Amino acid sequence: MPRPRLAGLHRLAAVALPVATALAIAPAAVTAADFAYLTSSQLTQLRALPLPLVLPRTLPAGYRLAHFEAVRDVVKNGLHSAPANEYDLTFRNGAGRELNFRVADSAWGDPAPDTDAYHRPFVVQSPVLGSTTFEPSRNASQWSWLSGYVTVDARNPKARMNVGGSNPADVTAFYRSFERLSK
């Protein structure tokens, strides 16, 4: 039996719904306030690295940039100037909580998960980076949650990042806020 044709509003809804859904998941335009925690010099350093550039668009309330490092590995006469091309940013708030992430193309070690009864792993989905599991880890007197290694760009599988922080709610918001920037 042939399929009945949609008429009038039903046909409009069949077209409008997928378009509206696609627009809803499209990233918002970048504004001057986005990435305001970085100076233009820091953005220039990041764009000069041979790595994909992914950054949190905004930070959770109260967090400020506490550490910035961008390192380019230059090979001269077979010797490397650094263990990896990488960038590493750390943010802190007034309560001493911390968020951080690192993107690199090598020099990765394995985090040591610690699954204490009150500190459980959790999964976060990012529209840009996909899904990752944050594992609890005890560092000195503070608990933190660290992601597994996340591939930043499928075209450059060696470029990976990990994300971490001391508060699961802040880590979740932070991970979901990452955006791809053009070089």
Characterise this structure.
This protein is α+β, with helices and mostly antiparallel strands and 183 residues long. The protein has helices spanning 8-25, 40-48, 168-176, and strands spanning 54-56, 64-71, 75-76, 79-80, 86-92, 98-104, 122-126, 130-139, 142-147, 150-151, 160-165, 178-180. It is built from three helices and twelve strands. Strands 2, 5, 6, 7, 8, 9, 10 and 11 form an eight-stranded antiparallel beta sheet that branches. The chain has a two-stranded antiparallel sheet with strand order 1-12. It is globular.
Describe the secondary structure blueprint for this structure:
Elements: H1 8-25, H2 40-48, E1 54-56, E2 64-71, E3 75-76, E4 79-80, E5 86-92, E6 98-104, E7 122-126, E8 130-139, E9 142-147, E10 150-151, E11 160-165, H3 168-176, E12 178-180
Antiparallel strand pairs: 1-12, 2-5, 3-4, 5-6, 6-11, 7-8, 8-9, 9-11, 10-11
Descriptive terms for the model:
alpha+beta; 3 helices; two-stranded antiparallel sheet; disordered N terminus; globular; 183 residues
Oligomer: single chain
Cα-atom radius of gyration: 20 Å
Tell me the structural class: alpha+beta
Number of strands: 12
Instruction: Quickly count the helices.
Output: 3
Mean of all residue-level pLDDT scores: 77
Largest sheet: 8 strands, antiparallel
Shape from CA axes? globular
Distance between the termini: 54 Å
What is the share of helical residues?
10-25%
Order of helices and strands: HHEEEEEEEEEEEHE
Unreliable parts: 1-27, 110-115
Q: Work out the strand percent.
A: 25-35%
